[in-house]
């Protein structure tokens, strides 16, 4: 804290502020381009000028760049009163504008453009330069980002984000002298899961949102709200913008608690699933459209006389909805679960129980040694971006993984990253070894790094970690000591909340009741049991029953099988409360209403008896405390009591080959329906390490195909050779898992199939996590 | 006394003015048999105009709808399939709301929206007074015979690539290292 003076006005500043920060905090409108709070100052645009006021006799006033000047107590500047500084800014802006195209009316940035604002602010209204303008070729950057190169003012923010902040390497400043431009070497989609942020940091319309472009609207006309991203358990703050009842774009909402300035591409583009052409928007009973209000139809459906009900909530529905469903189940005397897979339920709950001191993203950024278990990028992208911040500072990041991951792929460039590729069944053993090294005080290697760290952070991906590994990681954290922090990426946005409302073994119980015929009707809200890990079992069980009532906003497999479909609201169309992986309770607000009314999940409370309503209220009170966080606020963290957990058999170490999951960062239940994002889904392939293939006696090359057989089901896929796949494992996508009706860790038989010599070489070779560049050949259909 | 004089003066003055006007030439015309002669810059029925080449001028920038004090204009923009030419997919003016202030015309950067000196817009229902694009778009350039915005903008459109617009140099060679 301290005070400096601008035009004799006292301005308070925080430690670490530069003069520009302080001025902005005091609402003094200093122009700036290249400075960004997350990317730092480089002092290259020369626009944020102020004039110093000499403090000593004989000193001359100087024009300085305020972004590069640390704020110090008692500093004095002239800004508006200065004779020189505004002139410097104005000249610079005029200079930038000499070759700027007359694009404002057709530029998506118009009206929300930093360059426009600054140009108006410095008073540069008319172009004096009447020479010829330099132009630059545009580049096609895939389905998500649009490039108009002429609009660039070379502030380097995009590169500083892409390379320096997000550690990407397929985009950069190209050319020389005054022919600098910002692009990829080849046309096509970005490799980085965070590429969309260059749209946000670019102060001009050089990079714009290509999805927004299709349904463009001026940003001031958009209906916006403080919402929370629903596409992974990090719970980033986002701001959806909608117009005329349709979602147009999603941008990060600045906040200090979770994601600060950025979001991942999944968070930016997956919400467009709400605009999918096949989204259910009509109440249907037995395939026939109904005009009655959704709630009335639900009430009727629940009142059928011969039905014995079961109720299913979901980790992607909010806390209140799950509580309401739980109480509805109590009213109906029905079993309830918020999980579709018993194994995931056990793993999630185990992780939730151990997450009470989970690190925030800032804690991860500031950590000096991070151990990651599982493919973090593919499950919680922004958590991984936080890991990159530590990596960037040369802090050791240790990684244990079984399939190809963007993070593990950085090992060649990032010297402080150490990745060990190993089958998940062996992870527990590896962690136990670390534990014994730490307890026996003979630590070297990873154990030494973890031991000597001041703020070690342990991160796991609950969905792919056997329960024993989750527990071992917790044990490791305990052995390292109180100062270590342990967190888990959970399977869905509100998995933490869903775990609180489901009883031990609830999903297995619901499944067996269905299979045994104890219940013959199911109400599903916001879940898609038929395409999850137990898809096959659910499909068989649900095929037998007469009443399948599904409330959802995507055209999922379960919706397609439903007897009654009730369209519900997407996250930006409603209010609610999510609990993120840290146990942080965050609420989100509705941005817009659709033209055709859909059921708002909060209306479901209308189905309850008054008793049940009171129970919902009291449970909510005991779960979240009295103060409900307001949308956009940091929320508060809860520390719930330990959850009871059921038992479930996990895969054990066998001699055969185990199936592991090959995820990708744009993948999630809802995201699959966002056409543009889903069009980047990598081609299905079977990942195998070359050395392991050789050990199995398989001669494989990039044109080979492998046939996988599990429990009598077969699937033939092109081979993706990658040293990032663990020995003893082959990695396949969720879709392949579903097709094989297999579960994580299942044993698989491999046989070489016919070669695909005619097929273009690139297709199978591309490492699986890399989107096939500029390729839309799967027509944007979901995987 | 002085008061009385003023009073008489005012009355006679007023009567003489009335008399003078009673015999003066008439400004009123026998509308509708006779049409009034309105100046070019009259702010009447609003139209959308086209470029000299006959392409729609409006680029759906939403400036007119944003400036409109009575929110009479509704737009949804779109982009042509094969180039970056923007146009209004939907353009509606609700003339029951329009107050003919002309701000939309002033705001339009492409000279697309223009007021005309037609005011005969009687209709028997409100719905008829909501003009959609087919009733707004006219196949002429209006008051500006030469203006073509896309010639001046930087975006490439059919027949004009990057670097071929007014005042533009051909695009730089990205791959050259020569000075
Ligand atoms: S593209 Fe945008 S962010 Fe990048 S240098 Fe140009 S103006 Fe700056
Ligand atoms: S990291 Fe997760 S919560 Fe954050 S934007 Fe990405 S998908 Fe959404
Ligand atoms: S003339 Fe005025 S009121 Fe009428 S549409 Fe234009 S801006 Fe709106
Ligand atoms: S201001 Fe002109 S170009 Fe812009 S939307 Fe209106 S009519 Fe079209
Ligand atoms: S913002 Fe200070 S020089 Fe660019």
TrEMBL record, chain B:
Q: Which domain of life is it from?
A: Bacteria
UniProt remark on cofactor binding: Binds 2 [4Fe-4S] clusters per subunit.
List keywords of the entry alphabetically. 4Fe-4S, Cell membrane, Iron, Iron-sulfur, Membrane, Metal-binding, NAD, Quinone, Repeat, Translocase, Ubiquinone
**Localization per record:** Cell membrane
The secretion signal range is none
Q: Which residues bind [4Fe-4S] cluster 2?
A: 68, 98, 101, 104
Q: Which reaction does it catalyse?
A: a quinone + NADH + 5 H(+)(in) = a quinol + NAD(+) + 4 H(+)(out)
Membrane topology, from the record: Peripheral membrane protein
Q: Which GO terms describe its molecular function?
A: 4 iron, 4 sulfur cluster binding; iron ion binding; NADH dehydrogenase (quinone) (non-electrogenic) activity; quinone binding
Names of the cofactor(s): [4Fe-4S] cluster
Q: Which residues form the 4Fe-4S ferredoxin-type domain?
A: 48-78, 89-118
Q: What is its main location?
A: membrane
- Family label: Belongs to the complex I 23 kDa subunit family.
Function of the protein = NDH-1 shuttles electrons from NADH, via FMN and iron-sulfur (Fe-S) centers, to quinones in the respiratory chain. The immediate electron acceptor for the enzyme in this species is believed to be ubiquinone. Couples the redox reaction to proton translocation (for every two electrons transferred, four hydrogen ions are translocated across the cytoplasmic membrane), and thus conserves the redox energy in a proton gradient.
Its name, as the record gives it, is NADH-quinone oxidoreductase subunit I
Source organism of the structure: Proteobacteria bacterium 228
Upper classification of the source organism reads:
Bacteria, Pseudomonadati, Pseudomonadota
